[in-house]
Specification:
By secondary structure, the chain is of the alpha+beta class. The protein has one domain: Alpha-Beta Plaits (2-Layer Sandwich). The protein is built from 2 helices and 6 strands; from the N terminus they run E-H-E-E-E-E-H-E. Strand 3 and strand 4 form a beta hairpin. Helix 1 packs antiparallel against helix 2. The chain is elongated and about 60 Å long. The N and C termini lie close together (about 10 Å).
Length: about 110
């Protein structure tokens, strides 16, 4: 099993969720986060004065999938989250050793 963690622009969340649903992915976790990468924030103006916003709002999506679905899900997330502009985000993949559904006790792939 693999965990996919994607950091994306907030307005792309619905697109990503819709495309994952089409692929049969039934569960994901979403967290509002802030951060910066190569953008290094942005400069805005308020009441005539400029100030720098160092941390930009993003959304973190976490999805656990069977190994066989990994490449498909990565492709779906990347294409659905892409705007072609700086700050589109990143995708990370982690190995998951165990998964247990609390309610039923199902383990590993059956727990997904």
């Amino acid at each position: 099993m693999k965990m996919i963690m994607a950091i994306i622009k907030p307005f792309k969340l619905d697109d990503v969720r819709d495309e994952l649903t089409k692929q049969g992915i039934e569960g994901l976790t979403v967290t509002d986060v802030k951060g910066f990468g190569r953008q290094k924030g942005k400069t805005e103006e308020y009441r005539g004065k400029e100030y720098t916003v160092s941390f930009l709002p993003k959304v973190k999506i976490e999805i656990v999938v069977e190994d066989e679905k990994l490449d498909t899900v990565l492709d779906v997330v990347q294409k659905a989250a892409e705007t072609g502009r700086i700050g589109d985000g990143k995708i990370f993949v982690y190995e998951i050793e165990r998964a247990i559904r609390i309610r039923t006790g199902e383990k590993d792939n059956e727990a997904l």
